[in-house]
UniProtKB/TrEMBL annotation:
UniProt EC number: 1.3.1.89
Catalyzed reactions per annotation: a 5,6-dihydrouridine in mRNA + NAD(+) = a uridine in mRNA + NADH + H(+); a 5,6-dihydrouridine in mRNA + NADP(+) = a uridine in mRNA + NADPH + H(+); 5,6-dihydrouridine(47) in tRNA + NAD(+) = uridine(47) in tRNA + NADH + H(+); 5,6-dihydrouridine(47) in tRNA + NADP(+) = uridine(47) in tRNA + NADPH + H(+)
Top-level lineage group: Eukaryota
Gene3D superfamilies: Aldolase class I
The protein, known as: tRNA-dihydrouridine(47) synthase [NAD(P)(+)]
Family to which this protein belongs: Belongs to the Dus family. Dus3 subfamily.
Organism: Galemys pyrenaicus (Iberian desman)
GO MF, one annotated term: RNA binding
Length: 194
């Protein structure tokens, strides 16, 4: 018989992202659920956030949106450091993503466009990352939308853009030109509706 495992997010669906995850509530639930393992989730975007979450007594943490904004977050948690990842290192991550997409869906027109759609959805989150070297204070908070900023190079500035047209430009760097009349509208409510 498999052991029962619970996962709890510290925010209700109605709150969406308007409130921070309530880790004190999760802590109370850990006590109430004991000895059953309980995993917690919510607002983890740095190794400090992960460390604070683990202090609640959870059996482990789950990371969702934080991994969309910073896929290298798991390395930061493991190594207990902030990674001032360069724009070229970030582009390499995007390049790997497109390679895996083409490997999975194929490199024909349909596979390229399916990969592009998933890449563009991801870029609509990834653009909210602010490089460590540009932050006024560490760590970045997941619920704070970054203001417009100039990156340390053209690519970093392009990756920070909140405009869907710039995400499309990034996709073209990796997957070639978009088809005629191509339109992208993010599924979530981003700032990129124009």
């Amino acid at each position: 018989m498999r052991p029962l495992l619970l996962q709890l997010h510290g925010r209700s669906r109605e709150q969406r992202y308007t409130k921070l995850a309530d880790w004190q509530y999760i802590k109370r639930c850990v006590t109430a659920a004991s000895p059953m393992p309980l995993f917690g989730n919510g607002d983890i975007l740095s190794y400090e956030d992960a460390n604070c979450a683990l202090q609640t007594g959870v059996s482990g943490i789950m990371i969702a949106r934080g991994a969309l904004l910073k896929p290298w977050l798991f390395t930061e948690i493991k190594e207990q450091r902030h990674w001032d990842i360069s724009s070229s290192e970030r582009l390499d991550i995007l390049r790997d993503f497109t390679h895996y997409g083409l490997e999975h869906w194929g490199s024909d027109t349909q596979g390229v466009e399916k990969t592009r759609r998933f890449l563009l959805e991801w870029l609509s989150f990834l653009c909210r990352y602010v490089p460590v070297g540009l932050l006024e204070r560490l760590p970045q908070r997941i619920n704070e939308r970054p203001p417009y900023y100039m990156g340390r190079d053209y690519l970093e500035t392009l990756m920070a853009s909140q405009k869907a047209a710039d995400w499309i430009r990034l996709s073209e760097m990796l997957l070639g030109p978009v088809p005629p009349n191509f339109v992208f509208l993010p599924k979530h409510k981003a700032n990129a509706y124009k």
